[in-house]
Write a sequence for this structure.
C-alpha cells in the first residue's frame, strides 16, 4: 500500500534526476571540449555544425550539443536549432536512469539494447568515447569504473583532479549564467 | 538480482537439407506469390547454381518471371534502382536471392524499394526507417559464411557520395532461408575455407563479446562444433554433401547468433582492412581471430575456455586444466588455420596476403576505431591497442 503511494514520487524523482544529469552532462561536454586535447581530437573528426542529441523516448528529457568547430562543443539545452545529425535514444526513462545513475555502463546499455542510434554509427562510437573520457574526469574513480568499460590506467590523480575542478567550475558558471539570463 | 537483460529475434523459417530447393514453390505459394524474380550474380549463374532453383520452380508450375544476374561484388544504389525498375516493369510480386552476401544485400535493398516505393534507396538508410512488412522474399545462400540470410542488415554503396549506406530493419529478414547442400558443393577450396572461418568468427565473437546471451550462445556453440568437425573433412573431400550441409547450417546458426549478440574487434579490424586493402571479408576474419582473442584473453577467459569443448571435443576438454582452456581454444583455432594454409594457402598473417603494405596498418587501426563493432568488444580498445594487434597480425 505504502509502496503504491510512494511510486508516483519515485517516478517523479527519477525523471528529475535524469533531467538534471542531462543538464550537467551537456554543460560538462562543452566544458571538457574546452580543456582536454584528447576530447578535442575526437571532436575534430565531426563536421562543423554537427548536432548531437541524447534523449529519452518517446519525447522525454534530452541534451543537445553542437560541434562548433576545432573540437569545441556548445550546449544547446533541450532544443535543437535544426534537425539533429546523431541521436542516441534511451527506449525508456528507466534505462536512462540505470546508465545515468551508473548502475549500467554505457557500452553495456548498448549491448543490452537499452539504446538506439539514429545516425552515423561511427560518430556514435566517437561520441561514446568522448562521454567515457568525460566520465573518467568528473566521477570518482570507484564510480567511473562502473560507468566506463575500462578505466584508463594512464589517468593519474593530479590530472584527474585538476581537470574535474576545471570542468565543474565551468559547469557551475554556465548554470549561473543560464539562471541570470 | 543482476542487471542482465537481452533480446533475441529470428523469425526466418529455415528450410535445410536434401531437396530443400524443391520447397521454394510451396513456400512462395503460401505467401500468395506467383511471379518471383531471381536476384543473383554472374558467378552463380556460370557455376550452374541457378539451374536447380529454376528447375525446382518450373517443375511445380511456378514460372520465374525475371532473372537479374549482374549483381557486382560491391553492390550500389544504381544497381538496386535498376533491379527495382525491372521488378516493376515485369510485374513481379516476390524476390528470390541466390548468392553470397552481395546478392542477398542487394535483394534486401530492392525489396525495400519495390515495397515502399520510390527510386532513391538512400532515403531508407538507417535504423528503423522501414515500418511495414515487405514483399515475399526467399534467400538461397551459395556460400557458407556470411549468415546474411538471417541478418536484418544490408549495406549498399552510394556511388554518387562514395559512402556505404547501412539499412537496418527486422523487415529486411527473408520469409525463409533455403539451405541446400547442392548450392555449396562446387565452392572452390579457398572460398570454402575463408567463408567457414567467417562463420567461425561470427560464432566465436558472438560467444565472447558483450551482448552474448543464453539463446545466441546455444547457436554459437553448435556452429563452432559443426565447423570444427566438418571443415577439414570438406577440404579433403569437397564433394562431401553431408559435410557441406553441416557447414551451411553452421553459417546460418552463426548468423543467428551474431545478429542477436553482435561482434567485436575482429570485425572492426576486418571491415577496415576490407575497405582499405580490398581483402575478402572471410579471409580478414580468419587472419585476425587468434590475435584478437589473445588481446581480449583476460576479459573472456571463461567463455573462451568453454569453447574448447566445441572446438576440440570432450576428450581434449576434460584433459585440459580449466586454467589453460582459453589458451587451448586459441591454439585449436591456430591449428585449424595452419591446416587450412596447408590445404589452400589461406593466409594467416597480413604479410602472407601479399595485398597489405606495412605502412597501411596505422590507417586500418584509425578506421577500425570508428567501427560499430568496437562498442561490443569486451575489452576497451585504444588506438595504440589496435595498432599493437595489427603489428602482431602482420607477420
Amino acid at each position: 500500500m505504502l509502496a503504491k503511494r510512494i511510486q508516483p514520487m519515485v517516478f517523479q524523482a527519477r525523471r528529475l534526476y535524469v533531467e538534471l544529469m542531462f543538464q550537467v552532462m551537456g554543460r560538462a561536454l562543452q566544458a571538457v571540449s574546452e580543456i582536454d586535447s584528447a576530447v578535442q581530437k575526437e571532436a575534430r573528426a565531426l563536421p562543423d555544425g554537427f548536432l548531437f542529441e541524447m534523449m529519452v523516448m518517446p519525447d522525454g528529457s534530452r541534451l543537445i550539443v553542437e560541434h562548433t568547430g576545432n573540437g569545441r562543443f556548445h550546449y544547446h539545452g533541450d532544443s535543437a536549432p535544426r534537425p539533429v545529425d546523431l541521436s542516441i535514444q534511451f527506449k525508456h526513462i528507466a534505462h536512462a536512469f540505470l546508465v545515468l545513475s551508473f548502475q549500467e555502463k554505457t557500452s553495456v546499455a548498448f549491448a543490452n539494447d537499452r539504446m538506439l542510434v539514429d545516425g552515423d554509427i561511427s560518430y556514435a562510437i566517437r561520441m561514446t568515447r568522448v562521454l567515457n573520457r568525460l566520465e573518467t574526469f568528473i566521477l570518482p574513480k570507484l564510480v567511473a569504473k562502473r560507468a566506463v568499460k575500462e578505466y584508463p590506467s594512464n589517468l593519474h590523480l593530479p590530472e584527474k583532479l585538476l581537470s574535474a575542478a576545471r570542468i565543474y567550475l565551468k559547469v557551475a558558471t554556465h548554470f549561473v549564467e543560464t539562471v541570470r539570463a | 538480482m543482476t542487471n542482465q537483460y537481452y533480446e533475441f529475434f529470428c523469425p526466418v523459417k529455415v528450410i535445410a537439407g536434401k531437396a530443400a530447393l524443391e520447397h521454394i514453390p510451396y513456400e512462395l505459394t503460401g505467401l500468395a506469390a506467383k511471379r518471383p524474380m531471381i536476384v543473383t550474380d554472374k558467378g552463380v549463374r556460370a557455376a550452374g547454381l541457378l539451374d536447380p532453383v529454376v528447375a525446382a520452380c518450373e517443375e511445380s508450375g511456378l514460372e520465374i518471371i525475371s532473372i537479374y544476374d549482374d549483381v557486382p561484388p560491391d553492390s550500389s544504389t544504381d544497381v538496386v534502382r535498376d533491379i527495382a525498375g525491372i521488378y516493376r516493369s515485369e510485374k513481379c510480386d516476390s524476390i528470390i536471392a541466390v548468392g553470397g552476401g552481395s546478392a542477398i544485400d542487394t535483394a534486401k535493398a530492392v525489396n525495400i524499394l519495390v515495397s515502399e516505393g520510390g527510386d532513391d534507396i538512400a532515403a531508407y538508410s538507417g535504423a528503423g526507417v522501414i515500418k511495414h512488412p515487405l514483399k515475399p522474399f526467399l534467400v538461397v545462400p551459395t556460400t557458407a559464411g556470411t549468415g546474411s540470410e538471417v541478418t536484418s542488415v544490408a549495406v549498399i554503396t552510394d556511388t554518387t557520395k562514395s559512402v556505404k549506406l547501412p539499412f537496418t530493419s527486422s523487415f529486411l529478414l527473408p520469409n525463409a532461408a533455403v539451405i541446400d547442400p547442392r548450392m555449396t558443393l562446387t565452392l572452390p577450396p579457398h572460398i570454402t575455407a575463408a567463408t567457414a572461418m567467417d562463420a567461425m568468427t561470427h560464432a566465436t565473437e558472438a560467444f565472447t563479446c558483450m551482448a552474448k546471451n543464453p539463446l545466441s550462445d546455444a547457436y554459437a556453440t553448435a556452429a563452432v562444433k559443426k565447423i570444427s568437425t566438418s571443415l577439414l573433412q570438406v577440404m579433403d573431400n569437397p564433394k562431401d554433401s553431408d559435410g557441406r550441409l553441416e557447414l551451411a547450417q553452421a553459417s546460418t546458426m552463426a548468423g543467428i547468433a551474431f545478429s542477436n549478440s553482435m561482434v567485436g574487434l575482429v570485425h572492426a579490424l576486418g571491415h577496415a582492412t576490407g575497405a582499405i586493402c580490398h581483402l575478402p571479408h572471410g579471409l580478414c576474419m580468419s587472419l585476425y581471430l587468434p590475435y584478437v582473442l589473445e588481446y581480449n584473453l583476460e576479459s573472456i577467459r571463461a567463455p573462451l575456455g568453454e569453447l574448447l569443448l566445441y572446438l576440440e571435443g570432450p576428450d581434449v576438454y576434460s584433459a585440459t586444466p580449466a586454467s589453460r582452456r582459453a589458451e587451448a581454444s586459441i591454439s585449436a583455432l591456430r591449428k585449424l588455420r595452419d591446416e587450412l594454409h596447408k590445404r589452400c594457402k589461406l593466409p594467416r598473417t597480413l604479410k602472407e596476403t601479399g595485398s597489405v603494405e606495412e605502412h597501411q596498418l596505422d590507417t586500418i587501426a584509425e578506421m577500425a576505431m570508428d567501427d560499430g563493432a568496437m562498442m561490443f568488444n569486451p575489452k576497451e580498445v585504444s588506438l595504440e591497442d589496435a595498432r599493437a594487434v595489427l603489428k602482431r597480425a602482420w607477420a
User: Anything to note?
Assistant: Chain B touches chain A through 21 residues (CB under 8 Å). Chain B has two domains: 13-182, 188-394.
